[in-house]
Design a protein that fits this description.
Elements lengths: L14 H9 L3 H20 L5 H17 L10 H19 L24 H11 L2 H12 L4 H8 L3 H28 L1 H6 L3
């Protein structure tokens, strides 16, 4: 019995090579691009909305548009930058078509209360960022630090100038640092919390 091991993403050719092969008619090459990037794309889009059907629809439309317009891809940019740009536009388009509803993300309410945050848990820090930051600021921060895209690529995905992205990321980090610092001060001043370690 022969066991065939699956190809790991690291073993696949670079995105540029897969694009070239897909343009030459190799459908498996484009499939490999999809397999390589679908999780990151899902994670990125999911952080922008709580509506998972919209995320799935945006991903499907983005993959279809990427396939149909692959000849328009500019290798000057990372493939992920191009794909994320298409997907983000699709998600925004879906959200615009949906009837407007009032939800907590769009209400001009008082700033959300800062809850105690375990700073050693990156997931909790990202959840705090999602709760505290404006959606555009969170997206810029996530693309830069969560997806590790360069500022130029973040600007391209978001359709914003690089200066705007740099300033937005700086402000988002400052806001998040301040929120985490106040959370730490609140924990230190809470006698019940400090007694937990003694009990």
């Amino acid at each position: 019995m022969t066991i065939v091991s699956p190809i790991l993403h690291d073993e696949l050719p670079a995105d540029g090579q897969l694009v070239s092969r897909a343009l030459a008619g190799d459908k498996r090459a484009f499939n490999n691009l999809v397999l390589r990037h679908e999780r990151r794309l899902f994670r990125f889009l999911s952080r922008g909305t709580a509506n998972l059907p919209d995320v799935e629809d945006a991903m499907q439309q983005a993959m279809l548009k990427a396939y149909l317009n692959l000849s328009r891809y500019n290798p000057r940019w990372r493939f992920t930058t191009w794909l994320f740009t298409i997907a983000l536009r699709e998600l925004r388009s879906l959200e615009r078509r949906r009837p407007a509803t009032r939800d907590a993300d769009h209400e001009p309410a008082a700033p959300p209360a800062v809850h105690a945050v375990e700073q050693d848990d990156p997931g909790e820090v990202w959840r705090t960022a999602r709760r505290l930051l404006k959606p555009q600021h969170y997206t810029a921060l996530w693309l830069r630090h969560g997806e590790d895209l360069p500022v130029a690529d973040v600007a391209k995905v978001m359709g914003r100038p690089r200066v705007w992205v740099s300033v937005t990321i700086h402000r988002a980090c400052a806001s998040l640092r301040e929120a985490l610092a106040s959370s730490d001060r609140a924990q230190e001043n809470n006698p019940a919390r400090s007694m937990r370690g003694v009990l």
